[in-house]
Amino acid sequence: MNYTLSQLRIFLKITQTGSITKAAEELHLTQPAVSIQLKNFQDQFDIPLTEIVGRKIYVTDFGKEIATAAEQIIQQVNAINFKTMEYKGQLTGKLKLSVVSTGKYVMPFFLADFMNANEGVELFMDVTNKSRVVESLERNEVDFSLVSILPEALNVEKIELLQNKLHLIGNAEQKFARKPYGKELFRDLPLIYRETGSGTRQTMEKFLAQHNIAAVKKMELTSNEAVKQAVMAGLGFSIMPLIGIKNELQDGDLQIVPVKGLPIKTTWSLIWLKGKRHSPVAAAFLSFIRKERHRIVQERFNWYENYV
Fold this sequence. Notes:
The protein is an alpha/beta fold. It has three domains: 5-87, Winged helix-like DNA-binding domain superfamily/Winged helix DNA-binding domain (Arc Repressor Mutant, subunit A, Orthogonal Bundle), CATH 1.10.10.10; 93-162 and 267-306, D-Maltodextrin-Binding Protein, domain 2, CATH 3.40.190; 164-265, 3-Layer(aba) Sandwich (D-Maltodextrin-Binding Protein, domain 2). The protein has ten helices and eleven strands. The chain has helices at residues 5-17, 20-27, 31-42, 61-87, 107-117, 130-138, 199-210, 224-232, 246-251, 280-300, and strands spanning 50-53, 56-59, 93-100, 121-128, 144-147, 156-171, 190-194, 216-221, 238-241, 254-257, 264-273. Helix 1 packs across helix 3 (31-42) and helix 1 crosses helix 4 (61-87). The longest helix has 27 residues, at 61-87.
């Protein structure tokens, strides 16, 4: 047999996700590349590792045993790598984060320099909605979480990273005046909502309720990316974070509709459980953020100040 570590990692990820597509996404590979590596790995065994029923992939009992062995091999290889780096005096270990979905436009810029300077650090970042982010933090499954609305039920500490601005967004087809409209504008606009549990939806609904706005709910979608595409297609309007629509605004595919009381302003904050004992990696990252956050904002988000 002549299988590779890459094949072991790919097969293990397929067994964990139950999907070639999801495995490809998490490994940052194309789906055909994952399928080819799975076939090459399977060709080295006389017994099937997986089977396809309908359109779903299932791992056989033999495949599950191979996956368990693969996980142990990968853990041992990681341990060897960590030990080697420790011997060289390099920082090693895992950094675990949970990030609200729109935070994917924010967090990578605060991670890049730290990860590049510490090759022995392995990053795990779960991008999901606010409810699941808070749940993972509450269960102490992560070192830090990135949110734009602080959880009320948890006792946390925080570092503020960047202001979050939410505007009313429409596509480029309809013309709007530059002078801010009154809130009665919402009565005539079909609104696209995020799903229940989303911080963006929570902020949007709070704004509508505070101003007694009876908005027309057109549809509900489960990601900011889906909302953005629906708005560009002309299916409705939405209150969206500015951070995720930079390219669409600059390309003229979306426009900010000026409304009195908008934008809504919150703050992107890195939070952790109060009293948490940080690992050396987490402590080093926290120190890095405290020292470098203002520089990162200035260098990476200077465009942000062009919008009120």
